[in-house]
Every structure is written in C-alpha cells, then in structure tokens.
Amino acid sequence: MSGSLPEEEYAELLRKTGFVDVAVERIRTYRLTDADGRSVFGSLTDDEAKAADGRLGSAIVRAKKPVATPVEGREYELRSATPGDLEGVVGLVEACGLTSKGIASGLGDFAVITLAGVTEIAGCVGLEWGGGAAMIRSLAVRRSARKYGFGERLVRWAIERARSAGVERVVLLTETAPRFFARLGFAAVERSSLPKALLESSSVAPT
Ligand SMILES: CC(C)(COP(=O)(O)OP(=O)(O)OC[C@H]1O[C@@H](n2cnc3c(N)ncnc32)[C@H](O)[C@@H]1OP(=O)(O)O)[C@@H](O)C(=O)NCCC(=O)NCCS
C-alpha cells in the first residue's frame, strides 16, 4: 500500500497527535521525467509524471512526544527498602550490569521506586559510608521505566539522606554514566582523592 501527503499536512498531523519539534528532512527528490525516477513510480502516466516531477521525495521525519512527569504518591512511590525488596533490588542491579555485593548487609541504606500496580521494583539506589563521606551505589532504573526522571529522583534521595546524616561529601564511582551525574552537578575528581574506606567498600573493591 502506498500514499502521499503534502509535507506540511504530514507535520500538522504529527503535531495534532501530541508530537513537538517536528522536522522533515528531505533526503531525496524524485525526478519523474528521467528513467530512474520513473522506475520508482512505474504506474504513472507521462502526464502524471510531468505534473509530479520534483514534488515527490523521501524524507526523514523527526519528532518528539513529550512524556508526562509521573506524580509521586499517585503513579509512583519512593521509599526506603525493606527486607522483602532484597531479591528485587539484587535482580535489578545485576540486570543493569552492576555488582550486587554487599547489598544484603547494606539494604537499610537503600531506597526503591515502585510504580502503582506493578510488583517489580522500577528503580533503586544505595549509600555506603566511610571516611566522613557517603558514596552513592547501585543506581539502577529498569529499562522500561527510564527517562521519566526516576534516576535523578533516586540520586536526590541519596544526597538528602547523606545530608541528614550529617555528611557533606557525596561521591560515586561510575564507568557507565559520567554525563548523567555531571548533569546533576557532580564534578570529576581523581580516584585517589576518595576516602580509602570507600574505595575498599564492597561495591567497588575488586574481587
Ligand atoms: C543511569 C540511569 C539510572 C538513569 O535512569 P533514568 O531514570 O533514565 O534517569 P532520568 O530519567 O533521571 O534521566 C534521564 C536522562 O539521563 C540521560 N542518561 C541516562 N543514562 C545516561 C548515561 N549513561 N550517560 C549519559 N546520560 C544518560 C538520559 O539520556 C536522559 O536524558 P534526556 O532527559 O536528555 O533524555 C539508568 O540509565 C540506568 O539504570 N542505567 C544502567 C545502570 C547504570 O549505569 N547506573 C549508574 C551506575 S553508577
């Protein structure tokens, strides 16, 4: 099946269905008066080909659909982890390629995000303590729940918890998300400047 719409009409339909930043980038314009172009639209008569010459093309259409920000207490809940969350937290952390070492003994310093009506945990984060600093660890958000702000919300929980425990320095080690943390205000430092106790902690020490 095939069909065509004028460019602006197509963009307008996307906008009507909630897309924003609609951009149509032409990548090819068909010359219907030469053999190449005619071979693509073989069923056109000579007159139709002449009329449509230069007016048909291929394009890449880019558009964004803004996501509604989930509301805490309605669509999701962020709460301290309980013993019943252990399996879910370990599973999620491992599924995200992170170590689960030390989670069982440190679960009291973890928070989880759950979505209304969904049993599986959507996200988690933990803290470890040492040398007067707190280290964010095990930040993980289930793939299907990403880009709703849960990662940022969990980091903010960790920072607030560290502050309310009287700790002013919050650090983390990341190989996978340096730009994500930079956006939240973290600055890169030499690994050697981190408290030794944290470098030896279960989540980062080599096995
Ligand atoms: C990093 C992670 C927790 C972010 O979760 P999230 O819920 O999607 O985060 P938010 O919704 O608050 O932020 C999403 C934004 O961060 C960006 N982002 C996510 N992961 C990123 C990464 N690794 N590097 C750079 N930017 C990243 C997204 O592109 C998105 O940007 P946009 O808003 O411009 O589209 C999630 O991608 C994850 O679990 N990753 C695998 C585990 C991991 O790497 N954890 C960190 C280990 S220390």
Helix proportion of residues, in percent?
25-40%
**How would you describe the shape?**
elongated
User: How many helix segments?
Assistant: 8
- How many β-strand stretches? 7
**Which ligands are bound?**
coenzyme A
**First-residue to last-residue Cα separation:** 58 Å
CATH fold field value of the largest domain: Aminopeptidase
Strand order of the largest sheet: 3-4-5-6-7
Low-confidence stretches: none
* Helix-strand sequence: HEHHEEHHEEEHEHH
Query: Mean pLDDT, nearest integer?
Result: 91
Q: Tell me about the largest β-sheet.
A: 5 strands, mixed
> How many structural domains?
2
Please identify, by name, the CATH architecture of the largest domain.
3-Layer(aba) Sandwich
Strand content: 25-35%
CATH hierarchy, class of the largest domain = Alpha Beta
Give the full name of the CATH homologous superfamily of the largest domain.
Gcn5-related N-acetyltransferase (GNAT)
Cα Rg: 26 Å
Judged by helices, strands and strand pairing, the structural class is alpha+beta
Structural summary, described in words:
30% of the residues lie in helices and 25% in strands. By secondary structure, the chain is of the alpha+beta class. The chain has two domains: 58 residues, no CATH class; 124 residues, Aminopeptidase (3-Layer(aba) Sandwich). The protein starts with 6 loop residues before the first helix and ends in an 8-residue tail after the last helix. The model has no long low-confidence stretch (mean pLDDT 91). The structure holds coenzyme A. Coenzyme A binds next to strand 6, helix 6 and helix 7.
